[in-house]
Amino acid sequence: MSKSLNLYAVAIVGVGVTLVGAANFADRFVTPLPAEAPKMTDAPNSVYGMLIAAANAKPGPSEGPMGIGRKALPEEIAAWDLEISPNASELPAGSGSVADGEMLFSNACAVCHGEFAEGVDNWPKLSGGDGTLADEDPLKTVGSYWPYLSTAWDYVHRSMPYGGAQTLSVDDTYAITAYILYSNYLVEDDFVLSNENFLEVEMPNADGFIVDDREETEAHFWDVEPCMENCKDSVEITMRAAVLDVTPEEADAEEEAAAAKVELAAAEPATAEPAVEAAVQTAALNADLVADGEKVFRKCQACHMVGDGAKNRVGPHLNDVMGRAIGGLDDFKYSKVLAEMGEAGTTWTEAEMIAFLADPKGYAKGTKMSFAGLRKEDDQAAIVEYLKSYSQ
Amino acid sequence: MTADNSKKGASRRAFLRGAVAAGGAVAGGAMARAADGPEPLITEVQDWASGFGDPVDAAPYGMPIEYESDVVRRNVEWLTADTTSSINFTPIHALDGTITPQGCAFERHHSGAIELKKEDYRLMINGLVDQPLVFSYADLERFPRENHVYFCECAANTGMEWAGAQLNGAQFTHGMIHNMEYSGVTLRTLLEEAGLEAAGDLSDKWIYVEGADASSNGRSIPMEKALDDCLVAFKANGEALRKEHGYPVRLVVPGWEGNMWVKWLRRVEVKDGPTESREETSKYTDTLADGTSRKWTWEMDAKSVVTSPSPQSPITHGPGPLVITGLAWSGRGAITRVDVSTDGGVSWTQARLAKEGDTKALSRFYLDIEWDGSEMLLQSRAHDDTGYVQPTKAQLREVRGENSIYHNNCIQTWWVKENGEAENVEVS
Fold first, then answer.
1. Of A179, A200, A221, at which residue does a domain stop?
2. Are B216 and A158 in contact (CB under 8 A)?
3. Interface test with B, best of A71, A237, A297, A303 (most B CBs within 10 A)
């Protein structure tokens, strides 16, 4: 029952500091600095590492006990070792303003998180909630809950925007983080966040956390011989799940399947003409490609719906999108650039769609679609074929 | 949403009534026929006893027979904004034994289940190590291998029940769990290959582990745990991991919350402190009644649940012999005992463990009773080998309040009615 945690809460001193010093030395004098996110711990901090770096050599085999694997190159470590810790020692140099952040946020983040980071539908709220943590329904946001700014910067940089992770530059990340701080009233509108002033930002809930204390505060759950007979005088039901009634319905699928069968059966007698029409329509489509496209579409469905009952979500629904004017749905708020393309008379032809999908931001600078694009031509063609199957 | 759900609720109740009625009819019918005379199922030659079944090439990789099509993972749509960052639930109400088949083991993704080929797989070990290394999948297969059975439970399992009885089914209240036999290499082996001399005193060192998917899910783990029992696994239940569980390689962190079991594991960095990533600060921290929050609540405390009878698994055979069964587990060790109450906790009977508990793995328990057909308030209570006894929800709330979200290991109550239907309830 003894707890290992306490060991780790001890201050980081001694050997750790010495090593970081050595790493820092190696960083400056042995290896070229990686373009982005140079980290002390990235730097080779051992004899082996320095040798590789000095020679800038091909990766050698492991010199460990089993001799399996190869040494990692500094460029490889720099590419993956990006995470930022609370002391911000790994933060890359750069800066971004609230004003720039507001524009970036509006384009890349607001579709889910709202223009003022207040959250859309069930998507996370990033602002507000100040002073609610002890309430019945606390609102946990970057402002009200997150203890470290490094966490926000790191998460934006590596994991956002959703569906287009790792596409934001260092400066954009500073700007968006600055805007999130502003939306929480933690900085003024002329604030510029940088690696220089990063640690000066005070996070309101920085002291709101304690290390797991279950073994002390819940010690009474241990080593008790629980009652086995006559443990209480009476038992009353105090709450029922059926009253709340939020459980997903199992029967639905079966009912739908049954209903679909009935519809099919009803449709069958009238085969002749519709079947021919359908055959003609499907002949124009490459069924394999449509099937491939359905798979690729998983990359899109976080934001777009297509098919029966499709509605606008984060992105517009895509029924009948092929051949439609760009930005052509009245009930969806498009980015300015797409709306203007549509007004100029451009429609979603196969070529336009492929150009857009290959490089969304290059094709339509300012598009709200955060998706990074489909690099493979096969995937582009498959999606177009798939969308055609839902267009006339 | 309310209107929609009440419609669904009506339909659910109708479904359950149907199931119970049908069950009763079948049981009654079978008996009646037996009384009336010989059963045609026995006396008449059935198709399957005369013609062919499937040839051996019908299913190179077999799926469960169609009659089991309801034994599937299920999603609770209103829980999350989108299914690519969401969770589904293991149908524990319909399973027996302890091993969870991969195909119905719950999934939790933060950016969807990616497809990563073995050839494209790389694992990097860096930071405070003697030599930063890169392993390919083929490299990992050359290290000495171990096999262990462990449960993986999401910290949010039963999290929707903090404020009251909410979801009506063991799958939904307790289904963020699975239990598999893993084959892989110990993390210790890989860290020692990279060399830990450079890290100096290991007692205050940490590792940071991250996955290859777009969510960059990363967690900090104390070095002591990393060197103790963490496994870099590439097989589960004898076959390759499923993509939804991190194919080709995931981290296994026995007994600790599922979020730390990083899937598509791509990097392990030795560091001199915790990273305090998004998943270990803004999420997976437990807010107490006074607004302060516990962090680093890694162990999953002892817990159990009756899986049958339960709301999705009603009693369909009427009074008489009844098998009460369920699962118990502890992230701190092995299950040593499970008590079952049929009267809401007034009296308890020690259940039978199917076999001696394994450390940090599911245990199956049974209590065989003679049901008299009266209402029951079914509960189970787990004990583990650290002496921990599973608490009631009231006991947990007393310490933690109702806003913890995570780590709800309270005693669950099913109200089994005279007709055999069951409902998720809270009792005094």
1. A200
2. yes
3. A237
Question: What is the rounded radius of gyration, in angstroms, for the C-alpha atoms of chain B?
Answer: 24
Contacting residues of A for B76, CB less than 8 Å apart: 246-248
Given this model, what pLDDT does residue A24 score? 35
**Residue A246: count of CB within 10 angstroms of its CB:** 18
Interface contact A71-B282, CB threshold 8 A: no
One-letter amino acid for residue A262 of the chain: V
pTM over 0.95: no
Q: Which of A200, A233, A267 is the last residue of a domain?
A: A200
Residue at A252 is within a domain: no
Q: How many CB atoms lie within 10 A of CB B32?
A: 10
B276 with B220: CB under 8 angstroms?
Answer: yes
Residues of A in Cβ contact (< 8 Å) with B314: none
| Res. B198: pLDDT tops 50 | yes
B329-346 pLDDT tens trace: 999 999 999 999 999 999
Residue A274 C-alpha, separation from nearest chain B C-alpha, in angstroms: 32
Ordered DSSP codes for B300-352: ---EEEEEESBTTB---S-SEEEEEEEEEE-TTS-EEEEEEESBTTSS-EEPE
Question: Which pLDDT does position A2 carry in this prediction?
Answer: 41
pLDDT along chain A (392 residues), means of 10: 39 37 35 40 44 58 97 97 96 97 94 93 94 94 98 97 93 98 97 98 97 98 95 95 82 45 39 38 73 83 81 84 88 84 87 87 80 82 88 77
- Count the Cβ atoms, other than its own, within 10 Å of residue B243: 16
A174 within some domain: yes
Tell me which residue range forms the domain holding A135.
Answer: 95-200
What is the number of structural domains in chain A? 2
DSSP readout, A226-272?
Answer: ---SS--S---EEEEHHHH--PPPSHHHHHHHHHHHHHHHHHGGG-H
Give every CB contact of residue B408 below 8 A, 6+ residues apart in sequence.
B157, B158, B159, B161, B162, B393, B396
Residues of chain A neighbouring B426 (CB-CB closer than 8 A): 237-239
Enter the ipTM.
Answer: 0.90
Residue A46 lies in a domain: no
pLDDT interval class at B315 (50, 70, 90): very high
Assess if residue A163 is contained within a domain. yes
How many of the other CB atoms lie within 10 Å of CB of A195?
A: 15
Q: Residue A323 belongs to a domain with what CATH number? A: 1.10.760.10
Compute the distance between CA of residue A68 and CA of residue B140 in angstroms, rounded to an integer: 8
User: Looking at the predicted structure, is the pLDDT value of residue B295 above 60?
Assistant: yes
Using CA atoms, how far apart are residues B267 and B217, in angstroms rounded to an integer? 11
